Task: inverse folding
């Protein structure tokens, strides 16, 4: 099944919103794939980071339902290498924020093993809460 | 003794206490006192990346302001703020940069902080302890070495936030050498790990330990292939993911051989021949002591 | 005076916004105007004829045309005046298109501004004086810097046309990068075979003097009168005696990496540059020779039966008189170590494309310089199109040379698998697309994705490449025997010394900037200096050769007549006022002012007419033709005379090279900016003296904007500093009497930075409107009396 991507007012508004929230201009993306090749988390992702940039450009909101935006660990490997000076981690954060601000969390405390929790340095909990919950 | 303000952050006085104590001991040997800020709060661990979110920058800016006030009030010799944790470094430096560059944001954040004694002007300079060591000079360091690590094959691991993004990194983001230079000054045998800048999986360790174990496996096995016997790091989270998660790595890869992961400051204490009670060599999942004993770097 | 004024409709470009008829009526009210006319298309055949007829019939002595930008049609109309028997400098243009109708959408405001602009031009024209072009004699001697294919082609064209060429090459042999190549795309001619004969042609040409292993130490003077000092580096082998028998090299004990083979093989410390070297003579490498570095050796001297070795040979200097110069200094390849993720220099199987050229080129004669293995990958855009590497430009030739090299390595061994990892494949030239298809037919696999990193297996030395196939959206981890880096073309370091001596301008990519990207692509802004080949930007061999021939033709154009005309817009000195204080001498960026009999004298042939000297003269003894003090003061007055009490008005002083062009470009892009602006065009804003600034405020200006070329791109060295100095002097007068210094805004601009201009102007208007109150009559009176003094000395600024 080939999916149809509609270009219309809604798609353009979505792209604009992500651009504004991230401070990036996704239309500058060259689609060269350096981000993907640099990404340590790529094996866990369902779409590649460059595909994420593309879907934002097209204004396809399904990008928010991907695992990729949550898997991104903000390690800035892509940021350091992007030939166009773009920061895909900011785009991923913007997409996460759109979800989180609708009170849709990616991580739930009740799933955690309390014994395991004791082992972590505090920064793990702070970081994960900041990134994965609203 | 030169006094310089120091910001611990959430993990350095708890789970990573031995990083702090070892760093302070090393600093003292080099005639520096890391003076802990009397009032500080958590930096937030991750830098908020969206354009419209100022709230999360208030915590780091508060710390930057208090550091500035503290060093002025107490006439510290050096007013720069030293941090040990890579995540704190990243958050403090990036936030600092933002309020230095965007006046409007600085004003708004200062407005949020109306209970503080003064306004923050962006003037605090944040440095990592490694940068302080680099300034003191590798030559000076090597003169302090009483117990050369000549026998020890050490592979430094950087991870992400010491290096990236490059505007706040402490070294070349693709080819850093600061830890190598340090280890060489201790006369260690430095092993190059091609994955020394690859992410350890960071906070995903909380939600998906298998992924983190897999990333850790790649990083560690590459270091081992290159001949490493021990890994150094400078981030409590990297340390946890590379050390503690070896338990999970072993479950997935039974042929994996464990390798100790320590803070660079611990090896410095050994090299400087400082009393090791504060080194925290017993604080690791993979105990480095058997290796160090075998290499005759510890006394029984 | 008899002035004719024309207002152009420019189709609807002007007339749709500006009320042309109304302007005709108001301008008519000025004195000395014989008529005002509006024309549909002034620049058309018909429009031009009308003007010629009018001049003759009405005996006009001045013409003012309000139309497009003078940068667009000034020359056209000046020629027209000449045709009608009028001196071309009795002419002014008012730019009511780019800087009025195109940037101010409101009809009322645009019309008011256009009126002022025309009135300003009319006022200026009243002070116009006939200016005569003078002629200088010029010889036929050309300096060609660089002995690559660009320099070779230019030299041969010039030599064949009867001009005397002095070709200077810093390497011991001419031939440049092309001599290193295996074959050339897309025709696959053998590079050595096609360049070899040209090298011989240069060496044997009666009109070409060849200086290899020579650097340029100094260049002084100007078009038709350059003095060039060469430094001929010591070769330590007497050229006339060496018969290239090669025994010296055979016996020499010192081995060093061979640069010609890109370090893949070794040569001796006494060596011949390459198998096709011209001149074909041995040379001692000073850096590596034992004897020359205080060690005992002397073997080559012993074995040379010709007695050609001379360890004590010194560097020599030679001075040449030159008329024109062609810069053909080529390019450097990107230093691949800088892209640390690809591991060049660390991983033995990562090589550069130029190394592969050498491997293939030498392949037919003996064993290959290094093995290539079975699976080979090319990485494209290494160092090019990469902000992280600091280079945004496309190197243009890498897509095709990789396509060529891929086919060549596959042809040597058809079992090889060859991959090219690219971001965009650019096959834009003649025969390129077909050549690309041929590579695809040959089974070369083109994969769309930029390689992120390479890891090496420390044992097998095989390379593992991480890259996304962006078309299938899959992650590739490829295992390769050899990875070839298609590293890009970068500005040559060797260009800098010559460029600095001649004060040539560089474009943002670091290559030399041509005088005009469309119509003067091989000229530079320095008269008589031309560029050819990759010194101007990356290009392939045919483009380089075309450009070299073009540069030769442009140089011939200047020299062929034996004389050339000089623009009469120069500074001139009133000897009665000059007291010989010599303050103007250091001010001149091109040292065109001399002292003769105790008075300053401007050498017309050298003077570029920037006007920088004028503000430095404490006696106001220097003025600038066509931009005289009276003309500028007149323009300032007319720009402000229509201002109403509640209005804000900003004067923009714009230099002709960048700021005025930028203002034009803003209009062309149809960006609108505040209409409360009036532009005064100058060769450089340094012409504006502090007194003129105070005069402008006295006459009602609320703010002054100085737009000058970025100092890196400016043809006038020191202009920015001079403007800032003049502003400081003005500040020292105006601030104590309560005029905010922020009302003067200075910006270094580039013609391309549209938003900078817009932002700066909007910001200044904001300051003038809100933060600064209108100037009181009392303050203006004080300013006016100050402006009557000569303010040329820098005083301490009181803030």
Result:
């Amino acid at each position: 099944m080939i999916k149809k991507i509609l270009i219309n007012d809604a798609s353009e508004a979505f792209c604009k919103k992500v651009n504004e929230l991230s401070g990036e201009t996704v239309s500058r993306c060259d689609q060269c794939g350096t981000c993907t090749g640099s990404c340590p988390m790529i094996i866990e992702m369902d779409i590649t980071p460059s595909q994420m940039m593309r879907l934002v450009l097209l204004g396809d909101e399904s990008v928010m339902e991907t695992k990729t935006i949550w898997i991104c660990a903000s390690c800035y490997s892509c940021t350091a290498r992007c030939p166009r000076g773009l920061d895909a981690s900011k785009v991923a954060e913007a997409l996460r924020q759109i979800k989180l601000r609708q009170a849709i969390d990616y991580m739930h405390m009740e799933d955690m093993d309390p014994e395991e929790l004791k082992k972590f340095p505090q920064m793990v909990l702070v970081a994960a809460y900041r990134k994965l919950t609203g | 003794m030169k006094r310089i303000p120091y910001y611990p952050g959430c993990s350095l006085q708890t789970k990573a206490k031995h990083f702090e104590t070892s760093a302070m001991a090393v600093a003292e040997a080099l005639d520096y006192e890391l003076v802990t800020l009397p009032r500080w709060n958590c930096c937030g661990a991750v830098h908020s990346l969206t354009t419209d979110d100022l709230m999360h920058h208030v915590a780091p800016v508060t710390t930057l302001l208090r550091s500035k006030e503290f060093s002025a009030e107490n006439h510290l010799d050096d007013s720069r703020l030293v941090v040990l944790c890579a995540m704190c470094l990243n958050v403090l430096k990036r936030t600092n940069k933002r309020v230095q560059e965007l006046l409007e944001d600085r004003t708004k954040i200062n407005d949020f902080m109306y209970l503080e004694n003064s306004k923050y002007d962006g003037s605090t300079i944040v440095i990592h302890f490694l940068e302080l060591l680099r300034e003191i000079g590798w030559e000076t360091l090597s003169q302090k070495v009483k117990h050369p690590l000549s026998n020890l094959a050490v592979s430094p691991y950087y991870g992400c936030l010491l290096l990236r993004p490059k505007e706040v990194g402490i070294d070349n983001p693709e080819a850093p050498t600061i830890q190598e230079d340090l280890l060489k000054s201790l006369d260690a045998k430095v092993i190059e790990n091609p994955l020394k800048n690859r992410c350890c999986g960071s906070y995903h360790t909380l939600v998906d330990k298998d992924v983190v174990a897999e990333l850790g496996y790649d990083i560690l096995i590459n270091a081992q292939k290159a001949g490493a016997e021990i890994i150094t790091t400078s981030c409590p989270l990297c340390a946890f993911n590379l050390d503690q998660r070896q338990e999970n790595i072993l479950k997935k890869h039974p042929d994996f051989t464990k390798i100790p992961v320590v803070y660079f400051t611990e090896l410095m204490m050994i090299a400087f021949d400082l009393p090791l009670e504060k080194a925290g060599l017993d604080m690791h999942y993979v105990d480095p002591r058997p290796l160090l004993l075998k290499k005759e770097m510890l006394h029984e | 005076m008899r002035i004719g004024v024309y207002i152009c409709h420019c189709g609807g470009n002007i007339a749709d916004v500006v009320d042309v008829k109304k302007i005709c009526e108001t301008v008519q009210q000025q004195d000395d105007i014989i008529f005002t006319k509006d024309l549909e298309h002034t620049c058309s055949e018909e429009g031009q004829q009308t003007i010629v007829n009018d001049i003759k019939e009405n005996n006009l002595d001045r013409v003012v045309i309000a139309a497009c930008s003078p940068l667009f049609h000034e020359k056209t109309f000046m020629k027209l005046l000449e045709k009608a028997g009028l001196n071309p400098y009795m002419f002014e243009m008012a730019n009511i298109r780019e800087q009025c109708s195109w940037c101010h959408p409101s009809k009322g405001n645009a019309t008011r501004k256009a009126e002022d602009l025309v009135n300003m031009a009319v006022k200026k024209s009243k002070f116009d004086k006939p200016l005569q072009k003078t002629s200088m004699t010029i010889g036929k001697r050309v300096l060609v810097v660089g002995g690559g294919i660009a320099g070779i082609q230019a030299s041969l064209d010039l030599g064949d046309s009867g001009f005397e060429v002095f070709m200077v090459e810093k390497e011991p042999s001419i031939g440049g990068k092309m001599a290193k190549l295996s074959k050339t795309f897309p025709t696959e001619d053998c590079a050595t075979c096609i360049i070899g004969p040209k090298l011989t042609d240069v060496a044997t040409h009666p009109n070409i003097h060849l200086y290899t292993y020579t650097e340029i130490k100094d260049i002084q003077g100007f078009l038709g009168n350059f003095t060039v000092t060469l430094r001929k580096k010591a070769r330590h082998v007497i050229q006339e005696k060496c018969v290239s028998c090669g025994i010296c090299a055979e016996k020499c004990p010192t081995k060093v990496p061979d640069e010609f083979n890109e370090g893949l093989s070794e040569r001796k410390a006494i060596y011949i540059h390459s198998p096709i070297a011209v001149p074909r003579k041995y040379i001692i490498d000073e850096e590596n020779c034992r004897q020359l570095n205080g060690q005992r050796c002397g073997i080559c001297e012993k074995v040379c039966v010709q007695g050609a070795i001379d360890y004590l040979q010194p560097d020599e200097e030679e001075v040449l008189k030159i008329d024109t110069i062609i810069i053909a200094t080529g390019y450097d390849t990107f230093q691949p170590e800088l892209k640390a993720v690809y591991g060049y220099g660390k991983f033995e199987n990562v090589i550069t494309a130029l190394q592969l050229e050498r491997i293939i080129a030498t392949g037919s004669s003996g064993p290959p310089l290094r093995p290539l293995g079975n699976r080979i990958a090319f990485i494209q855009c290494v160092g090019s199109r990469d902000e992280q590497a600091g280079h945004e430009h496309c190197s243009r030739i890498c897509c095709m040379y990789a396509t060529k090299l891929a086919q060549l390595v596959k042809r040597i061994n058809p079992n090889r698998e060859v991959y090219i990892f690219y971001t965009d494949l650019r096959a834009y030239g003649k025969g390129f697309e077909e050549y690309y298809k041929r590579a695809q037919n040959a089974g070369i696999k083109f994969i769309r994705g930029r390689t992120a990193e390479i890891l090496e297996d420390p044992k097998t030395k095989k390379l593992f490449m991480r890259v996304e196939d962006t078309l299938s959206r899959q992650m590739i981890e490829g295992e390769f025997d050899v990875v070839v880096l298609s590293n890009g073309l970068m500005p040559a370091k060797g260009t800098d010394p010559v460029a600095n001596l001649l004060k040539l301008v560089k474009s943002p990519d670091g290559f030399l900037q041509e005088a005009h990207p469309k119509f003067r692509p091989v000229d530079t802004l320095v008269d008589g200096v031309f560029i050819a080949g990759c010194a101007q930007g990356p290009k392939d061999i045919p483009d380089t050769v075309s450009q070299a021939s073009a540069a030769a033709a442009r140089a011939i154009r200047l020299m062929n007549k034996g004389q050339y005309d000089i623009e009469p817009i120069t500074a001139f000195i009133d000897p009665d006022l000059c007291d010989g204080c010599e303050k103007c001498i250091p001010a001149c960026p091109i040292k065109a002012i001399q002292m003769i009999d105790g008075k300053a004298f401007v050498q017309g042939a050298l003077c570029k007419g920037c006007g920088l000297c004028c503000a430095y003269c404490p006696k106001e003894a220097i003025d600038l033709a066509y931009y005289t003090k009276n003309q500028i003061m007149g323009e300032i007055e007319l720009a402000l005379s229509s201002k109403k009490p509640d209005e804000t008005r900003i004067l923009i002083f714009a230099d002709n090279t960048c700021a005025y062009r930028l203002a034009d470009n803003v209009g062309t892009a149809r960006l609108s900016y505040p209409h409360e602006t009036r532009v005064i065009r100058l060769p450089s804003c340094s012409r504006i003296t502090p007194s003129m600034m105070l005069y402008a405020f006295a006459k009602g200006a609320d703010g002054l904007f100085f737009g000058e070329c970025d100092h890196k791109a400016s043809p006038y060295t020191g202009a920015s500093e001079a403007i800032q100095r003049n502003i400081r002097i003005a500040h020292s007068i105006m601030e104590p009497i309560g005029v905010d210094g922020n009302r003067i805004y200075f910006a270094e601009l580039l013609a391309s930075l549209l938003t900078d201009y817009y932002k700066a102007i909007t910001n200044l208007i904001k300051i003038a409107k809100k933060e600064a109150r209108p100037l009181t009559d009392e303050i203006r009176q004080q300013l006016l009396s100050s402006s009557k003094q000569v303010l040329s000395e820098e005083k301490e600024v009181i803030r």
